[in-house]
Amino acid sequence: MQRPTLRNDSGRVPRACQRCRQQKLKCDIRRPCTLCIRANVTCATPVKPTTWKTHEAGRPAKKACRRNDSAEVSAAHGRPSEAVSSASSMYLDEAFQQHNTTSPDAAEVSAFSAPRHDLEDGTSQSSASDTSGGQRRGQTHAANNNATRQGMLSALPARDIATMLVNNYFDRIHWFVLVFHQSDFRLQAQQLYDETRTASQCRSIPTAFLGVYLAVCILSLSYLDPSQTATLSRLGEETVSLQERLLGPLRAGLLDIAAEGSLEAVQTCVLLGSYYLYHGQPQLAWPVCGWALRIAQALKLHRRSSQQTVAVPNLDDPKQRAEESRKRCWWAVYEIETFCSMLYGYPLSINDDDCDIELLHQYPVRSADPTWDANERRITGQATLLSYKVAIVQLSIIVRTALLKLYSLGDRSRPQKPARRTNTSDRMRTLVESVAVLDRKLDAWRSELPQQLHLDQMPVGAVAPCRDYLAGAAGPCSRACFHYLFPLQTLSLKLAFENARILIHRPLLKYRLALPDSHQANAPPPPDFSDPCQASVRACQAAALQISDICSLPLVHDAGATYAVAFICLHLLTAAITLSILASLNTMSQASHDCKMGLRRLMEMQSRLTGKSIVTSQGLIVSKRLMSLVLQKERDEMLNVPLLPDPPRVEIEARQEVAAASRASAGCDEHDAPQSGSSCASALMQRGQAQAVDMLVTQDPLVTPEDPYLGFYEDLATTQALFDFEQAFLESHSESVTDGRVVAGSLGQQTSGSQDYSWIWSSNVDPALSWH
Predict the structure, then answer these.
(1) CA angle 436-442-445, nearest 5°?
(2) Measured CA distances, 20 to 27, 644, 703 (Å)
(3) Are strands 511-513 and 741-742 parallel, antiparallel or unpaired?
(4) Most confident of 371-380, 428-437, 509-518
């Protein structure tokens, strides 16, 4: 019999002994414990439970992924094996380790583990999964994957056609999407066609890259010029039939591509999602882009890689270029997810606090190009071909903040902070301050743009067409390239900037700030009186008119041949909606006339771009309907002349005295009226508008000197204008059919549970009432 261990009363222990832990007995705090002494057994110290600690990925410092900081953040922990274990499989491995035996084979526990989506070494694992994935994941998946590959390989166009489509993609589309590096794509495309001549399987080409290649060809087919279309016909293909033939196997194999969990899978989903978004099928764009986001998060593209060791990347170094590819892919996902949410009101799914990846570097090193001087360009503030993407991502971050703070479009599946009861004054104060902060961020973003992309330096004349640019392009950043691309990029940034300003100021349009109680009815506002709601009205009108003024530039028509045409047309429609609503507030005013003329210019440009995109033709239908409503309202007001008796002489004299006092307060006198008649008329018109608004108030606003935010009230004129717009939009959806699709197809579907393009203009959207 084993001799019992004597009790040591001087030594305390932090946890129970091994016997008591196994039998779930109440152990002592000293060794040996009483129960082990009574049982005449050894009181053994338990195995340290360090292997049973909860697995937690390294968390970055809490900051948004909106700034290019250089602070070091710990990389996510992960086992170097080929599979990232879930919680169940991790505990399963540790359980077998406790018994000093090997864990079950991965194929036996495949239901408890997910494939490792880790690109820390800068390479994709999709090619490895093609050869050995079937053994790990079962014969069914391997058979499906082979069928997907065969379907895509059989759909590949002839080499000369494919070369034309790829060249056209990099001419008209690549600068707008920028989801991969051109050199890497062309190298794999060359390898793809080299192998198809000798082997039908193309084992070295990942299945997901086949998806990327088909998506590139599909997008390119939508932007062929007449000469390219004629060449395609001469080679025995038609644009529509070839596009459908390529799209079929890509859609059928999308699940298998997503299952690979590679960088190419993300790129495929981004390209296909953008195709649906800009070609009239937003109901498909949102879920496909959601796949891209989930795969990107599994790949940790939103996290800084531990392989990144240099501040300025060298794009001619394979590893550093691979890191930049990760960034390109992530920010493409970020941008399109934000754009979908802005257009259709979908909830945002990315939490910026989980991201620590840096922005793309505008001035990378090109060690193999002696003519490239990144440092000189950075010092002189010149733009590069990456400057546009950096700028549009920074603007997307501002737009995303506006959607979260002003429209509450956060992910509802995430835990929300408990609601805090606040009064109307607090909510309005928060709303006004948020609008002001976001507006300042927009101005700061604009001031930091490089010289060639400055919004006030848009070219007046037409830019060189794509073929001229290509003929003179000697390298990736040649002068001809700059001459062609920079104006198009500036146009896109200008439209996106003005659209963001409308988005930020729209929540205040339906409110007004009442004048102080001491204010007399016919007296001008106090000098220190500032109404942020009226300032937002002016900001929205100015932004929409800026967009309409741009329509007169030949550059907008030239952009119709590029992938940005649908992006541009969506912003034209935003401006048309804004002007139609503001024009209907006071149809007899000069401001309303300016809005109607701006709307007319927008319709002219939409008419010129009809046929370039389904978004353009359907947007023109909506704009015409809105213009008709504005003119109908103006006609009704013009003909509505009340039959009133002549006023008595005393009342006429009283009105003359009030008018004289108003002119004097506005700085106008009878003697100088001819010189400054327009300014006097403008001042009187503004006061007349204020009086008209006051007549629509149904309840007395509560105004106190201590808290001016209690003086906000809902403007019934704006509410009625928003309601009229909703009715017009719904009628346009039900009455108009374009290209075999209803208007709802590209601008939003009016079906149960769906979203539409007009969501921010709904009279039911009230950001001030949604604050907690």
Answers:
(1) 145
(2) 6, 100, 71
(3) unpaired
(4) 428-437
Through-space distance between the first and last CA atoms of the chain, rounded to whole angstroms = 71
Transcribe 73-96 into DSSP letters.
-PPPP--SSSEEE-HHHHHHHHHH
Which amino acid belongs to residue 184? D
Q: How far apart are CA 708 and CA 520, in angstroms?
A: 18
Q: Backbone phi, then psi, for 737, in 5-degree steps?
A: -135, 130
Report residue 243 as tokens. Answer: 């596009």
SS3 for 5? Answer: coil
Question: Which residues are registered as beta bridge partners of 6?
Answer: none
Q: What is the pLDDT of residue 694?
A: 40
How far from 464 is each of 255, 389, 459, 483, 697, CA to CA, in Å? 41, 22, 12, 7, 55
- On whether the CB atoms of residues 557 and 608 are closer than 8 A, the answer is yes
- Please indicate, yes or no, whether the overall pTM of this predicted structure exceeds 0.90: no
Express each pLDDT in 617-634 by its tens digit: 888 888 888 898 889 888
**Of 126, 293, 324, nearest to 212 (Cα)?**
126
Residue 566 has which token pair? 């649908």
Cα–Cα distances (Å) from 333 to 40, 214, 292, 328, 492, in that order, read 66, 19, 7, 9, 18
CA 129 to chain centroid, in Å, comes to 32
Q: Is 273 helix (H, G, I), strand (E, B) or coil?
A: helix
User: How far is Cα 353 from Cα 400, in angstroms, rounded to an integer?
Assistant: 13
Residue 49: asked if its preceding bond is cis (omega within 30°), the reply is: no
Distance CA 547, CA 491 (A): 10
Residue with tokens 């349009």: 509
- The closest alpha carbon to 124, from 211, 205, 58, 178, belongs to 205
The 8-class DSSP code of residue 31 comes to: E
pLDDT digits (tens, 9 = 90+) for 538-570: 999 999 999 999 888 888 888 888 888 889 998
> Which of 332, 765, 280 lies closest to 510 in space, CA to CA?
765
Burial 585-602 (b: 16+ CB within 10 A, else e): bbbebebbebbbebbebb
Biggest CA–CA distance in the chain, Å, is: 127
d(CA 461, CA 472): 19
Contact 277, 314 (CB under 8 A): no
Q: Tokens 């023109």: give the residue.
A: 620
Quick one: residue 84, left, alpha or beta (phi over 0 = left, psi -120 to 50 = alpha)?
beta
Q: Give me 191's structure tokens.
A: 């390898």
- CA–CA gap between residue 70 and residue 421 (Å, rounded): 40
DSSP 148-185: HHHHHHHHPPPHHHHHHHHHHHHHHTHHHH--S-HHHH
- pLDDT, average across residues 374-382: 82
H or E stretch covering 604: helix 590-608
CB contact set of 446 (below 8 Å; sequence gap of 6+)? 455, 497
- Cβ atoms of residues 342 and 291 within 8 Å: no
* Cα gap 360→397, rounded to integer Å: 14
Q: How far apart are CA 483 and CA 339, in angstroms?
A: 27
Give yes or no for a contact between 496 and 546, defined as CB atoms under 8 angstroms apart: no
Question: Following DSSP, what letter does each residue of 365-390 receive, concatenated?
Answer: B-TT-TT--HHHHHHHT---TTHHHH
Q: Is 511 helix (H, G, I), strand (E, B) or coil?
A: strand
> In whole angstroms, what is the distance from residue 659 CA to residue 662 CA?
5
What does the pLDDT look like over 90-134, one tens digit per residue? 666 667 766 766 667 666 666 666 655 554 444 444 443 444 444
CA angle 613, 457, 335 (to 5 degrees): 45
493 and 455 in contact (C-beta within 8 Å)?
Answer: yes
Dihedral sign from CA coordinates of 441, 443, 449, 455: positive
**Distance (Å, rounded) from C-alpha 4 to C-alpha 358?**
63
Closest C-alpha among 289, 297, 247, 245 to residue 271: 289
What is the pLDDT at residue 644? 60
